[in-house]
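Researcher: We're teaching a course module on how sequence relates to structure. For the next exercise, students receive a sequence and then see the predicted structure as tokens, so they can try to spot secondary structure elements on their own. Here is the exercise chain.
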Amino acid sequence: MSDKEAFTEHDWRRLLASLGEDPDRPGLHETPHRVAKAWKHWTSGYDQDPIEVLKAFEDGAEEYNELIVVRNIPVYSHCEHHLAPFFGKATVGYLPNGKIVGLSKLTRLVDIFSKRLQVQERMTIQIANALMEVLEPKAVGVVVKCRHLCMESRGIRAIGEETITSAMLGELQPNLALRTEFLALARD
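Model: And here is the predicted structure for the students to work with:
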């Protein structure tokens, strides 16, 4: 991004002024700097390659043929329609085919895709597709359950509603028993 396109602290000051605030008052004086830093963190997923994070290894995976599931992975993202936060939990699982990945890498994968402007549906399938591409497992399942502040704080004001999305790839699509097992493991 060129300097001409970069959103700066000056722009955040202008936003505060456009809302009717005085960006120079003591409580807001440091806000443009803090907000710029926060948005850099909240969108840091653009600077990370999910493929590089998912370093697969075969040691320990040669005879393992059951589901591997990590539940309650935190999701903090912003919807691309209103830039409003959405947050919740993800469950990611896979059935290995000779390769496994460190369990913390599943959490990092969710974090990378959630730290981009998103819609929950796309984020869910991005997580599943990345895992499928790198590990080439027999199956991948992802379930994401989030609350969306764009729905809770404006418009319909659906307080406490959760949106649940899922992606089932590989053997989780045709194999009802495996799908049922994954969903049972994913359930809170």
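Model: If you want an answer key for the exercise: The first strand starts at residue 56 and ends at 57. Residues 149 and 155 are 10 Å apart (CA to CA).
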